[in-house]
Amino acid sequence: MKRSQFLNLFTIAGVVTLVPYKAIANSKLFSRIKEGFMVLAGKDRNDKPLTIFGSDTFTTKVSTKDSNGDMFIFESVRMGKGGPSSHFHYEQDEWWYILEGEFEIIVGNSIYKAKAGDSVFGPRMVPHSFSKTSEGKGKLLITYQPAGKMEECFKLISGGATKNFSKEQWNSFVKKYGFENA
User: Fold this and answer.
1) d(Cα 83, Cα 105) in Å, to the nearest integer?
2) pTM, whole model, 2 decimals?
3) Cα gap 50→45, rounded to integer Å
4) Which of 73, 86, 82 is nearest to 142 (CA)?
5) What is the pLDDT of residues 118-129, one digit of tens each?
6) In which element (H, E) is residue 106 found?
7) Percent helix, strand and coil across the chain, each rounded to 5?
8) Which terminal Cβ of the chain has fewer Cβ within 10 Å, N or C?
9) Domain ranges of the chain
10) Is the CATH code 2.60.120.10 the one for domain 50-181?
11) How many Cα atoms sit within 13 Å of 146 on the Cβ side?
């Protein structure tokens, strides 16, 4: 084989090898928004705040689609005391940043008494719960990384899809969305 033929063959092989990767990188699977954005205080990224479990309002700040599934950030405003039961996520880390009020956040065997300005991190597969403990309004930012199916899950709950679920139905539902009760 002549040197020029070898170089041509090497070049063609390199291009053929890279074409599938370039196609994947340019596909919608890896598309991201190309511009920054701002979500005003008290507003929802999609102008559709969610009401969860009666008195909790979730306003999306960074949607799953915005980050191509890398994260989901929402602000939770809670009027009543309490919070979700202990649970864990298969693939999502969870981060809480307290904006207003006081919360008790339990991650594994650690109990954190968090107030405005404090943050707590909960790694995936570690049981956790959080509960508003103060009077009046409580507000926190919650981030899931990666986003997983949490935004979709909250939309269904807000729309009433789980309203009359039995415990067994609830357990089956949450497993589809990447978490379960601890």
Assistant:
1) 10
2) 0.81
3) 11
4) 73
5) 999 999 999 999
6) strand 102-107
7) 25, 35, 40
8) N
9) 1-31, 50-181
10) yes
11) 12
